[in-house]
Design brief:
alpha/beta; Rossmann fold; transmembrane helix; single chain; two-stranded antiparallel sheet; 10-stranded mixed beta sheet; Methyltransferase domain protein; membrane; 2 domains; about 35% helix
Length: about 325
Amino acid sequence: MSISYAAKEPIADDVNAPRPSGLDRASTEIRRRHYFELHDQSWWPVPMREFMTNLLIIAWTFPWISLTRNGRKIVPSFATLTARVIERLLTELDAMGQPVSRVTDLCSGSGGPWESLLPLIDKYKINVVLSDLYPPPLQPHPWLAPEHAESAGQRVSGAGHGICKIQYYSDSVDATNLPDSLNGLRSLCGCFHHFRPDFAASILQDCIDKRLPVVVIETSARSIVQKFGSPFFMAGMSLATPIAYRRTTPWYLWVLTYVFPLTLICACFDGLASCSRAYQPDEMLAVAAKCQGAESYRWEAGTETFYGLFSLVFMTGRPLAANETISD
């Protein structure tokens, strides 16, 4: 596995030493193409949209057979790579005196990788709140426990080992203006490519205005390997989805998967569109640079890849500590 960063400087022993903010590595041009995805459209049938979100849950954890060597996965999943990025940020925030006890996940949809990140949640003793502009019904996923009531009166679905460590916020949440109750580290997992640069900047602007750290994780990339591999990967995930969700997949979606492979075609189309929409690390930094006050944050962006077979693109941002300075 190889890792590359657009901003790679380690945590300084002396926090008073001037350090780059990371924005100096921002691209001067954002070259992505904002093609439409089928499951983004309001007219797209709800069962097909749910099929796609279930497919994405499966994709986060592929491969499902765990091959390990010396305690490490030989073939890591997207969820494994995501855990590494988030853990680095949590460790840095702890070192800078900005510990995190809650993560608010934006545009959660299917719930993304969080079911697979329970070991990380346990290790850092954090609670995760999933949110979305169009939240699904309560208990939207089989790994979420039955609903319960919070003191604030908001109903949520939760999961955890006796304690609700993953919750789904039942009200509609605008990612550009979150309520103050949804604080902590903001995360965007697999959704950043859905937004044009100005709107994506407005999401980051809300984080900066409220002085909250943020992490962006993207499983789509504009690499040649990923573009050519995406149709095969998405087709494979489509074939696995009815089996993994056999109790909730309608009979006609079985037919449209294994007899008339419409779901495979649609998944391949959206996979290719996602790759074309994807931001490169320097383009993510360019989006952050659009925000007022971005220079008061420490930004880092890069990729994690497994031998070039697939890439995970990420960006992290955290407020500078009171005794921390940045260089020009």
